[in-house]
Structure formats: structure tokens, C-alpha cells
Amino acid sequence: MGTSFTPQLIIHNATGASIISLEDQDVWTVGRGPENDIILDEHTVSRHHAKIQHQGPGEYRVADVGSGNGSFVNGKRIVMSHILQHGDRLTMGRIQLEFQGSRLEEALPSPPRKTILMLHSSALQSKVWQEVLTSQGVAVAHLNPSTNLSNLLTHRAASQDLPDLLLLDMTGIRDNPYHFCRWCRDTYPQIKVVLMSGKRTEVSDSERKWAIHQGAIDLLAGFPEPQLFNNLIVVTTKVKSVLQILDWPEIQQQKLLDALLAIQTLRKQSPRY
Fold first, then answer.
1. Which residues of the chain form CATH 3.40.50.2300?
2. Structural domain 115-261, CATH architecture
3. What's the mean per-residue pLDDT of the chain?
4. Burial 88-113 (b: 16+ CB within 10 A, else e)
5. Which of 93, 123, 160, 224 has the most neighbouring CB atoms within 10 Å?
6. pLDDT exceeds 90 at position 216
7. What is the pTM (predicted TM-score) of this model?
């Protein structure tokens, strides 16, 4: 017999993922200001950005309240308001949120949720990885390039909060990538490390073999930025490789396509990408 599930928002940000239960009130205000019910501490989010209303059994509606950068659901800008469906992905500024409104066994994938810590020097490459992996149900947290990775893992190990995988741009981390891979393999063998080659779209077999010899699980080439949406097979192949490393279920193709469309919309609106 199933267990009832309280609708919730999963907020994905630079520090990881947090969960907000949508219960015990009818309206939740969302924004950067401390007076909001749901605070999104990111400068691209307006002080008063949006609101979520509970309108009846299982029905939640989100509306933008005149924010500067707008609110989006599954890549489409909210004009008036939108009735949320289970799995809807909301974008407010640079913050990604996911609405879960089904029963617990339907809302979450059958295996335990996986966590990836990612560091990349390219805003676009980083955004693509975040969107496509989040679309598959994986929690992705960004790291600052100045992060001392060994200190971070030591700290997280003390609080029993180690990630399942590290996705690291070789050109962006402060540590020697191969030295770090060897250290991580010896110290935290349960953590998988996948290296990325920055914006380079090709890596040689010898480079890949050397990275694996040094302790990485794989070395992946970058996404082809100018023709990103003309190379869906390349994108899908890279995503599949990471999901396989995580022993994750088979890729959900439609959700992947929706994520890429959301990135395409964002690129048109933001010069950062």
C-alpha cells in the first residue's frame, strides 16, 4: 500500500539541493528578500519574484509578480500563471526548482537520489550539464573554481555528505587534476571522478587512457557549443555515459530534449551563455 506524499519543491543551487514542503498554508511568496516564505539567495532573483498558491486538493498554481528576469516553467515564460504538474521545472533567475506533486513512489526514481558536485570554467558547458542531469533526476551542485577539493571532501566526509560523483573540468580546478584523482582514489574510493576537457570537443585515446590510469573513471570532451542543438546524439551519449557510471536508470529522452530547449531559450535571453 502506497504512502501519501506532500507536494514539494526541490531547489537546486550552488550549495546542492534543498526541499520545501508545500503544506500548512495557501500561499507561498518566492524571492530574494528575507520576508519571503521561500528565499532564493541569488542576485538574478528579484526581491519579490513569484508566488505559489494552493487552490484545492493537489492543485498548485505559480505566478510571476513582476520580477525583473521573469519566471519560466519547462523553458516557457509565465505570462499570467501556470497550474503546476508533477515534474515541472521552474527557472527563476539562475535558480532551478522542481515541483513534485505525486505520491512518493511516483515522484522519486526507484534508486536513491544521486548527487554530483561539478566544477567547470565555462558557464554554458556547466549549464548544459546541470540542465541535462537534473532533468534525469540527479542532484547537481556547482563548485567555485577556487574550491580546495580535498578540504571540501574531508569536511563533507565528517558530516557523512560525500557526493556520488565529481564532474571536474581539468582546465578550471586549482589542484593538479591527476594528483587529485590519485588522492581521491586512495582516500575516498567510493567517489567516482569524471574529468572534462574544458571546451575542447575531442580528446585522444591516449589522453583518456592516461586519465583513467591516474584514477579518473573517464575523460569527456566538451559539448560542441556553436552547434549544440544539431548534435543531440553527442549530448545524449555523454549524458548516458555519466548515468551509467552512477548506475542510474535508462535516460528519459523527452526530459532531456525539454532541458535542451530550456537552455536554448536561456541563451537567447542571457548574454552570459
1. 115-261
2. 3-Layer(aba) Sandwich (3.40)
3. 85
4. bbbbbbbbbbbbbbeeeeebeeeeee
5. 93
6. yes
7. 0.60
